């Protein structure tokens, strides 16, 4: 998993509450277990018309937001089914951070396991960030995970809270496998001890 230390990028405003995982990545894209290639299906039912052409009114299809790496979204982001394809699709598109007033628990946990930083802010802070994000190509936000700060284009700063263990994992690029590999020497020592005691195994 890639480390997340800081991020400066275009923030796209997604003024939708209750964005569920089916909206993030529709069911027809769930046939794969690969984490790559899902970016094209992100928000597919909003991004594309029935004939497959792009919907020019959807925020991520607008020229200023095509390379957005941050989403500023409404309340209860990531609700619905527990599909891990949702953070995979966000990451494959290039989104490394989602800012909202609340997240569904399973989606929130899955973000950390895939190198995405979900940030919870107060409603009045979200309103300010949404206003920043609506500036188009000038909608650049900076996220400093170490300092736990969001910095706006006008120099404003918003602090956010994050669990210290999750912060450690993101800063060091540690998913569940990475955390296990950190204990590799202890695991090897334990296996050698067991082998000595139970050689018949």
TrEMBL record:
<dbReference type="InterPro" id="IPR050075">
    <property type="entry name" value="LeuD"/>
</dbReference>
<dbReference type="GO" id="GO:0003861">
    <property type="term" value="F:3-isopropylmalate dehydratase activity"/>
</dbReference>
<dbReference type="GO" id="GO:0009316">
    <property type="term" value="C:3-isopropylmalate dehydratase complex"/>
</dbReference>
<feature type="domain" description="Aconitase A/isopropylmalate dehydratase small subunit swivel">
    <location>
        <begin position="1"/>
        <end position="122"/>
    </location>
</feature>
<keyword id="KW-0456">Lyase</keyword>
<keyword id="KW-0100">Branched-chain amino acid biosynthesis</keyword>
<dbReference type="InterPro" id="IPR015928">
    <property type="entry name" value="Aconitase/3IPM_dehydase_swvl"/>
</dbReference>
<keyword id="KW-0432">Leucine biosynthesis</keyword>
<comment type="subunit">
    <text>Heterodimer of LeuC and LeuD.</text>
</comment>
<dbReference type="InterPro" id="IPR033940">
    <property type="entry name" value="IPMI_Swivel"/>
</dbReference>
<dbReference type="InterPro" id="IPR004431">
    <property type="entry name" value="3-IsopropMal_deHydase_ssu"/>
</dbReference>
<dbReference type="GO" id="GO:0009098">
    <property type="term" value="P:L-leucine biosynthetic process"/>
</dbReference>
<dbReference type="InterPro" id="IPR000573">
    <property type="entry name" value="AconitaseA/IPMdHydase_ssu_swvl"/>
</dbReference>
<comment type="pathway">
    <text>Amino-acid biosynthesis; L-leucine biosynthesis; L-leucine from 3-methyl-2-oxobutanoate: step 2/4.</text>
</comment>
<keyword id="KW-0028">Amino-acid biosynthesis</keyword>
<dbReference type="Pfam" id="PF00694">
    <property type="entry name" value="Aconitase_C"/>
</dbReference>
<protein>
    <recommendedName>
        <fullName>3-isopropylmalate dehydratase small subunit</fullName>
        <ecNumber>4.2.1.33</ecNumber>
    </recommendedName>
</protein>
<comment type="function">
    <text>Catalyzes the isomerization between 2-isopropylmalate and 3-isopropylmalate, via the formation of 2-isopropylmaleate.</text>
</comment>
<comment type="similarity">
    <text>Belongs to the LeuD family. LeuD type 1 subfamily.</text>
</comment>
